[in-house]
C-alpha cells in the first residue's frame, strides 16, 4: 500500500502542483489515469470484469441465483452488492481489518443503484430480473474484490461494477404455466449461453470523486494525493450527465457554492469516464465476437 | 457419474496421469514486495508477500528466527455457489495453517531474526486443488520477493476413482467421494515431503500408489516453476543490461560534450 505517511513538504509540493494544473504524474486537475477493463476474467461467474485505474486494481464478479423478490417490489428482481478488501492489497486487511472500508464502499455502490419504489428507476431496471411475479426472481450478487489500493477506490469500483453488469449473461428462463390456473407456475432454466439475456446498462451511473486540494477541485486522486485533501464529494452521474447520487465525505466542510462547482466538475469528468469505459468495453466485445 | 470413460479419458478429456494446464505470472501486484498469480486448470490463485520487515507485534518477536504470517481468503465469486464469507471459517483457518507450515519449512527463517514475512493468498477461482495452487502461488510470490529459501516448494494432489489413480483432481472429481491426497515436496532434497493430507478412506496399497502419483505431479509442477523463475530472472537481467547500456550511452554523450567544449 502506498505509504500512509506524508511529509509537510510533499503536501506543499502536491498542492502547488495542483494550483499550476500540473500534478505529480503530469495530469491536469480533471484528467483520469489510464483505465483498462478486461471482461470475463472469472469463468464461472455470470459476468465479471477486472478494472485497473492507474495502480488501483479491482475485480468484480456477478452471480445470478434464483431467489424470491422483495415483498415491497414483487415484480422485480434484486441486486445485492458486496465488497471485500483482499489481504493481498495490504497487511492492514488481515482478518477483519478491511470490514469498515468494504462496508462503506458496498453501501456507496448500493446507493448509486437505488431503484426507487417502483424498482425501475435505478441504473438497472430490476423488473427485467423478475421470473414469476411475487414468487421467483433473479437475485444478482455483485461482489467486488480490491486487489490493489492506488487511490480513488469508489470510482474504480463503480466502473468495474458497470463493466461486470455489462458482461453478465443471465440464463434464459421459461415460465411454464400448469394446466390448472391455480397451479404454481414452473420455470425452466435454459443453460444455452447463446440464449442468455444481457442486461441493459445504458443508465448505470459511474461514481466520480471530486476532492479539494488547496483551493482547487481535483478528480481521480492517487493514494498520495488523497493524503493532501480533506474534503471530497462523490457524485454518481449517468451517461446522459444526470446526477443520480451525492455524498460529501471527509472531515472538512465546504462552502455550498464550492460544492456545486465540484458537482459540475464531476459531471464533466463523468462524461470522460463513461467514454473511456465505453471504448474499453466495445474493444473487448469486438474481441469476444471475433473469437466466438 | 462416470469419472473415467472406457477409453481412459476423464471428464475434462485428460488422461489419468495428466496434470491440468499450469500458468504462472510474477509481479502482478504493484504494492506487494512480491506477488504471483498461479493457475492450475480453472483454479486461479493470487499470492502477495509483504516483507521481510520488522516485526509488528513485539511480544511475538523471536531473536533467532523470522515469523511467517499467513492468510487464506476465497472470493465470493470463486466457487460455483456464491460464498458469503471468504475468511474466518474453519476450512480457511486449516488451510492457512497448512500453508504456513509448508512455508516455514521452506524459508530460511534463521537468516532473518526479529523479522516478519506476511504471505497472503487470495483464491479467485476454485476448481479443485485449491490448497495446492495456494502453496505454489505462495512459493512463487516469495521467490519474486527474493526471500531466501531452501528449495522449490511444489504441491499437487491426486485421487482414486473407479479403480484408477487420477492426478490433479478438479472440483467434480474431488466431490466424487474417493480419497484426495494433497502433497507438497522439496524436489532437490530427494522429494522430501513437506505437506501430506488425505481425505476419505483408502486401502493402504492404493494410498501408496496415489501418493507416488501425487509426488510425481509435484515434481512436474516444480519443474514448471523452475522454468518460470528462470525466464523471469532472464527478463530482469535483460532489463538491467538494457538499463546499463542506456546509462553508459548517456555517459558517453556527456563525455562527448566535454570534448567539444574544448
The low-confidence runs of chain B, each spanning 5 or more residues with pLDDT under 50, are none
* Spatial gap, N to C terminus of chain A: 39 Å
Briefly note the CATH topology name of chain B. Ribosomal Protein S5, domain 2
Q: Give the tally of structural domains of chain A.
A: 1
- Average predicted confidence as pLDDT of chain B: 91
| Tally of structural domains of chain B | 1
Overall strand count of chain B: 9
Q: Flag low-confidence runs of chain A.
A: none
Q: What would CATH call the architecture of chain B?
A: 2-Layer Sandwich
Structural class of chain A: alpha+beta
Shape of chain B: globular
User: Which strand order spans the largest sheet of chain B, edge to edge or round the barrel?
Assistant: 1-2-3-5-4
Level-2 CATH architecture of chain A: 2-Layer Sandwich
What is the top-level CATH class of chain B?
Answer: Alpha Beta
Element-level helix/strand string of chain A: HEEEEHEEHEEEEEEHEEH
Summarize the helix and strand pattern of chain B as letters: EEEEHEHEEHEEH
Largest interface: A-B, 33 and 31 residues
Number of DSSP strand runs of chain A: 14
InterPro entries (chain A): ExoRNase_PH_dom1, ExoRNase_PH_dom2, ExoRNase_PH_dom2_sf, Exosome_comp_Rrp42_subfam, PNPase/RNase_PH_dom_sf, Ribosomal_Su5_D2-typ_SF
GO molecular function (chain A): mRNA 3'-UTR AU-rich region binding
Keywords (chain A): Cytoplasm, Exosome
Subcellular location (chain A): Cytoplasm; Nucleus, Nucleolus
Amino acid at each position: 500500500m502506498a505509504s500512509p505517511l506524508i511529509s509537510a513538504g510533499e503536501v506543499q509540493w502536491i498542492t502547488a502542483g495542483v494550483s499550476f494544473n500540473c500534478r505529480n504524474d503530469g495530469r491536469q486537475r480533471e484528467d483520469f489515469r489510464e483505465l483498462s477493463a478486461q471482461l470475463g476474467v472469472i469463468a464461472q461467474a455470470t459476468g465479471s470484469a477486472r478494472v485497473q485505474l492507474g495502480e488501483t486494481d479491482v475485480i468484480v464478479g456477478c452471480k445470478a441465483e434464483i431467489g424470491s423478490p422483495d415483498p415491497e417490489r414483487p415484480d422485480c428482481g434484486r441486486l445485492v452488492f458486496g465488497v471485500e478488501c483482499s489481504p493481498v492489497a495490504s497487511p492492514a486487511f488481515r482478518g477483519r481489518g478491511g470490514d469498515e472500508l468494504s462496508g462503506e464502499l458496498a453501501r456507496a455502490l448500493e446507493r448509486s443503484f437505488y431503484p426507487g419504489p417502483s424498482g425501475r428507476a435505478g441504473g438497472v431496471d430490476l423488473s427485467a430480473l423478475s421470473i414469476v411475479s411475487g414468487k421467483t426472481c433473479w437475485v444478482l450478487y455483485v461482489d467486488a474484490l480490491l486487489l490493489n489500493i492506488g487511490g480513488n477506490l469508489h470510482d474504480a469500483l463503480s466502473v468495474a461494477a458497470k463493466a461486470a453488469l455489462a458482461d453478465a449473461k443471465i440464463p434464459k428462463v421459461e415460465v411454464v404455466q400448469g394446466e390448472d390456473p391455480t397451479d404454481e407456475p414452473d420455470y425452466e432454466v435454459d443453460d444455452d449461453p447463446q440464449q442468455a439475456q444481457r442486461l441493459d446498462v445504458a443508465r448505470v451511473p459511474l461514481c466520480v470523486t471530486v476532492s479539494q486540494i488547496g483551493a482547487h477541485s481535483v478528480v481521480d486522486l492517487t493514494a498520495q494525493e488523497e493524503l493532501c485533501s480533506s474534503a471530497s464529494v462523490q457524485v454518481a452521474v449517468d451517461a446522459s450527465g444526470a446526477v443520480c447520487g451525492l455524498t460529501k465525505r471527509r472531515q472538512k466542510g465546504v462552502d455550498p457554492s464550492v460544492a456545486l462547482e465540484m458537482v459540475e466538475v464531476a459531471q464533466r469528468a463523468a462524461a470522460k469516464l463513461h467514454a473511456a469505459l465505453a471504448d474499453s468495453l466495445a474493444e473487448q466485445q469486438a474481441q469476444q465476437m471475433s473469437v466466438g | 457419474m462416470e469419472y473415467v470413460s472406457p477409453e481412459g479419458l476423464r471428464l475434462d478429456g485428460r488422461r489419468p496421469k495428466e496434470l491440468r494446464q499450469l500458468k504462472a505470472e510474477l509481479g502482478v501486484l504493484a504494492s506487494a514486495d512480491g506477488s504471483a498469480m498461479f493457475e492450475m486448470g480453472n483454479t486461479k490463485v493470487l499470492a502477495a508477500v509483504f516483507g521481510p520487515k520488522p516485526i509488528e507485534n513485539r511480544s511475538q518477536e523471536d531473536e533467532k528466527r523470522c515469523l511467517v504470517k499467513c492468510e487464506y481468503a476465497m472470493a465470493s465469486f470463486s466457487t460455483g455457489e456464491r460464498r458469503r464469507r471468504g475468511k474466518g471459517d474453519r476450512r480457511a483457518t486449516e488451510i492457512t495453517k497448512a500453508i504456513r507450515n509448508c512455508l516455514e519449512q521452506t524459508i530460511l527463517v534463521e537468516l532473518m531474526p526479529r523479522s516478519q514475512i506476511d504471505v497472503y493468498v487470495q483464491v479467485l477461482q476454485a476448481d479443485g486443488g485449491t490448497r495446492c495452487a495456494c502453496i505454489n502461488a505462495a512459493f512463487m510470490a516469495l521467490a519474486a520477493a527474493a526471500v531466501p529459501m531452501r528449495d522449490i516448494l511444489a504441491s499437487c494432489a491426486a485421487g482414486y476413482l473407479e479403480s484408477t489413480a487420477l492426478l490433479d483432481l478438479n472440483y467434480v472429481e474431488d466431490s466424487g467421494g474417493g480419497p484426495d491426497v494433497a502433497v507438497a515436496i522439496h524436489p532437490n532434497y530427494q522429494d522430501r515431503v513437506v505437506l501430506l493430507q488425505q481425505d476419505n478412506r483408502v486401502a493402504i496399497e492404493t494410498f501408496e500408489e496415489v501418493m507416488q502419483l501425487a509426488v510425481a505431479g509435484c515434481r512436474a509442477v516444480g519443474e514448471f516453476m523452475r522454468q518460470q523463475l528462470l525466464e523471469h530472472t532472464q527478463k530482469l537481467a535483460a532489463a538491467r543490461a538494457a538499463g546499463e547500456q542506456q546509462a553508459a550511452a548517456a555517459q558517453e554523450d556527456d563525455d562527448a560534450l566535454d570534448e567539444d567544449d574544448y
